[in-house]
Amino acid sequence: EIRVFKGPTWNGRPSRMLISFVTMEANTLLIPHYMDADLILFLLKGEAKAGWIHEDDLVERQLKPGDVLQVPAGSTFYFVNTRKDQKLQFIAAVERAETDLIGGWFSAFFIDGGKFPPSVSAGFGISTLTSAFNATPEEVGVLKSASFAGSIIFNTDNEANHLHEVISDMKSEMKRLKQSRPLIQNSDKKTVSWTTILGSIFFGETAKETNKAKRRASDPVEAPNAYNVYDREPDFKNDYGWSIEINGDDYLPLKQSDISITLLSLSTGSMMAPHMNPRATEYGVVIAGAGTVEVVYPNGTQAMKAKVREGDVFWVPRFYPFCQVAAREI
C-alpha cells in the first residue's frame, strides 16, 4: 500500500515536497522503476533490501529500522521485504525535480511492467522498439503482454521469479556495459540510455550479441550506505526529551538534496519550546505517541493548533514560529 500526502499550495504555488507512506506485506517486492523526484527514505519497521543504479552500477543495501537512504531522481530502484513474518513500513520525503511540467505531483516510470503497471517502453511504436532493441515485432510484444498485479507483488510464483531474473539481468548488464558500449552518460548532462539493459531483460541473447566486451571495466563505484539515526548519540538530551539531527555533513546525499532530518522524542507532557526554522519549510510525521502542534502567523495570531497522533503529517512554513507538546496521556 502506498499513500501520498500532498501539501497545500503556498502563495499560489504547489508544494514541491510530498510525504509518502509505504507498507509492504511480508515477502513482497516493489518492482523496478524510477521517478522524477528525489526520495529520502526512513525505514520505520521491518527489514529490507534496496537496490538502485548508482553511477552505472546496480548496488544493493540491507536496511534496518532507523536507516535513512537517498535515491536520486532518475535512478532506477526496487525494494524487497526480506522478512517472511513481518510488514515493512517506510516514510519517504518526495521532492520533485525541476521540470517544465506544471503541478506539484510526481511520476513513476516502470522499467519492467506490462498491463499494470505499464512499462515506459510500451508507449513507443513497434518499429521504434524493434530498431532500438534489435528484436522482432513478436519479441517486443512482451512489453505489452506482461502482467503484474500492481507495483508491489508477492515474492512467490511466476511473477516474482520473473522479477528475480530482471534484477539478475540488470546486475550483469550494468557490469558488462562498463566494458562494452556503455550507458550514454557524462558527468555534465547525466543522460542515460537503457535500451541495452531492457534488451537483455526482455529479449535475451538477441540484444546482448550487439554489445561484446571490448574495453577494460572501470574501477568499482563506491555507492553510499544508508545512515542509521539510532546509531548515534542525541545532539540534545535532558529529562524532558531528546533530539537527533542529521544533515549533509553526516550523510552526503542529504547535502545533494539540501535536506536535513530531525528525530525528536518528548517525554509525556513535555514541550519543545517555541522556535522557527530560518532556512527551510519543515514537514513533520508523528511516528509514535500523540500531542499538539501550534503554529503562529507573522502578525502574532494563531495559524494552527492541532492535535496529532501516530501517522499524522503536518508542515510549518519557513520562518513561522511553532512548538510541539507531547500529550499527558494517549
UniProtKB/TrEMBL annotation:
CDD domains: cupin_7S_vicilin-like_C (cd02245), cupin_7S_vicilin-like_N (cd02244)
InterPro entries reported for this sequence: Cupin_1, RmlC-like_jellyroll, RmlC_Cupin_sf, Seed_Storage-Functional
Domain of life of the organism encoding this protein: Eukaryota
Residue ranges annotated for the Cupin type-1 domain, each copy included: 2-141, 227-328
Protein name listed in UniProt: Cupin
